[in-house]
């Protein structure tokens, strides 16, 4: 069995604006079966463009100008970047699914959650019976921690956290070997964010799918990833195990990124009050 599920080779994506932006400037990496690969980097470094490029969701003026994306998690290798039309639609969700920032707002406001989940199954698993579809949807709701009764709700009747969980359920419906998550919890409050992250790592352990997890939140990546790729100006400047990124960062930019976050483990310093304060007031 191949240990690599996805291979990205020298992927290049431009925005054909004036001047041209080389948003992804020759990115190569391999995603291993069942791993969580974190992609970190400051705003504008090309993370989202990369995610959309891998799944062929880019819209003009964005354009893939070079490289290859190969899915290796099935019987035959698939050149994802060459898929079109019905073949692309059949591939997406089934082999690689996505949860993007604000995905929770992608739910259709006039359809019940059940109809939207069942629609994915009707399209991709046409031989499933009605009862099988019902069972699968109810199972997935339980898997992501939403009571199955909520299948009868409309999106506006659910909290932001629940809606994002529903989107994760949708991404898991077809049991894909790869999930791409781009800031999947950024729009949520910290407590809900932690719950959902814990859920994603638990599901990964249980179901064994691989995840590309994109965020500017490096401490979060250090917590959940097996390996981390650090992106800067459209390129990966360092890709290593999370342990090495944390303890032995090689690239100066990785060190800079790490230094930008307060240490979680170092010596505890006593708070001495605001540096600019000249009075005792409010101390
Ligand atoms: N429609 C567009 N036209 C021209 N340039 C664009 C367009 N969309 C994005 N870019 C540029 O492409 C580069 C990469 O943007 P991208 O959104 O992929 O970065 P990012 O790392 O995901 O940032 P963020 O974390 O803020 O979402 C940036 O320089 C951005 O300004």
TrEMBL record:
Q: Name one GO molecular function term.
A: ATP binding
Location(s) in or outside the cell: Cell membrane
Key words of the record: ATP-binding, Cell inner membrane, Cell membrane, Membrane, Nucleotide-binding, Translocase, Transport
Name the Pfam families for this protein: ABC_tran, oligo_HPY
Record's keyword annotation contains Cell membrane: yes
**rRNA processing: is it a keyword of this entry?**
no
ABC transporter domain span = 6-258
Q: Which PROSITE patterns match?
A: ABC_TRANSPORTER_1, ABC_TRANSPORTER_2
Q: What is its main location?
A: membrane
Membrane topology qualifier: Peripheral membrane protein
Q: Which InterPro entries match?
A: AAA+_ATPase (IPR003593), ABC_Ni/Peptide_Import (IPR050388), ABC_transporter-like_ATP-bd (IPR003439), ABC_transporter-like_CS (IPR017871), Oligopep_ABC_C (IPR013563), P-loop_NTPase (IPR027417)
Q: Which family does it belong to?
A: Belongs to the ABC transporter superfamily.
Can you name this protein?
Answer: Peptide/nickel transport system ATP-binding protein
Task: Provide the species name.
Answer: Microbacterium paludicola
